[in-house]
Write the structure tokens for this entry.
Amino acid sequence: MISMYGRLIRASLKASMQYKWNFLISSTMMGLLMIIDFIVIAVLLWRFDNIRGWNLYEIGLLYGTVSLSDALVRFIASEMQDFDKYIIQGEFDSLLVKPVSPLILLITRKIDISRLGPVFQASLIICFCLYFLSQQGQSIGPLLLFLPFVILCGMLVCFSLLLIMCTISFLIGKGSELMVFFYYAPLNAAKYPISLYSNWLKALFFSLIPVGYMGYLTFSYLLEKGGSMWQFLFVPVAVIAFFGLSISFWNYGIRHYHSTGQ
Amino acid sequence: MIYMLLAVKTYKVNLQYRMAHLVHNLGSCIFCFVYMAIWTGILSGREEMSPYGLQELLFYLTSTQCLLWLTTFLSPGLQIHLWVRSGDVSMYLARPVHFYLYTISQEMGRISYNFFYRSIPIYLILGFAVGFHTPDEPLTLLWYALSSLFAIIIGLNFFYIVGITSFWTTEVRWAMYLNQSLILMLGGQMLPLEFYPEPFASILINLPFASILYIPSMILLEKLSYDMLGLQLFWCVVLIAFNVTVTQFARRRVEIQGG
């Protein structure tokens, strides 16, 4: 699968390079849209110094890692964002008749190369924040050590949420309108400390839409923002459990799938 | 009138998806709740550092969130790039109606729909959460309505510029992202423009982006006088004149794709 994926990435890059300027400008602009909220927060914190004890670089680290996880998942599994068409036009049938898992086929169908812009810009925010945190005397060794762990947990949460959205499309046909409620809005919320939100939102982000596990708990422990070791250790358990649940839900959806195409 | 008929038709098409859009609105409210939580976190215990009170900022966010659906979240490129790519644009240009008015009136139908099925439900949900703002002076509501109308015209014209660019470039995805980025950041969606450092704040207030979200919301909060309507009207005239002129050039430039 990995070699197949490598070939797909090379082919997509080659295709995108046929329209080099378009690819470069689109990627940059897509990243710009992502970075805007961070610029606005930077302006705010330039004036107010911190938000409930989190300074610009600490928030930036959280913001950058969540954005990076999201961008990587949308780069790798771009077809999952546009899954409605498979159901409405009956294209999903063609994935079911092949001797490979339909999920793997779906993921390897296409990659969104323009997501490299947000990937690059999110990485830039992370490096910028880590540098200034180290200048402020923060020990960045543990942060660097656990950074891949945070990104991976974030990617698993994003992937699981997308998978659940795809499965809902099996059941109701058009699940894309739910994406804002179940994916875009919660992910935007996960870029800031969850402690800021009202109790019902906190409950939502640690249960039904568990974006609180993407970075907040790990960083609130590592940056000493009130997080505990137990919460930190619970993160991989919660993320893997959610991933398992989403896979089970996907399999349930496939068992109850009825073709709607012509 | 033909343009009115076009708007009504687009409105009716959108009506088919109203249930899905109502669910979508909940997500839009969560976006706004996040910004409200950030402002609450920032200002708790230090409201004196801000030119606006927390409650005023929450009303401001409610207003900008509702205006987004009338000015900023419109059809990408008003769909012009799709017509250019498919070659359908030749049919639209051949019709005995003005291409600019044809495109704008279609989108006006969608904006009217958004007003009833996006902005009002979002206003009600956010209003029940943070309260409903009532201006001291009743006439303010009239100025707010007028300011919002100008904001819609300016927003529409920005989207038209993005769409008409496709006559030269075919691909406009980058222009759509740029347009949305500029409106959200320079329009003051989450951050009123006074919070930017000087001289940026003074410059930004006079740019057309401020007329889309910031000026109407501040007029509603009675923080800006109705004199600002003059600035909005100026930008409306400039953008309309620009787009009508560019449409003339685009007619000469058109290349028909497809067969």
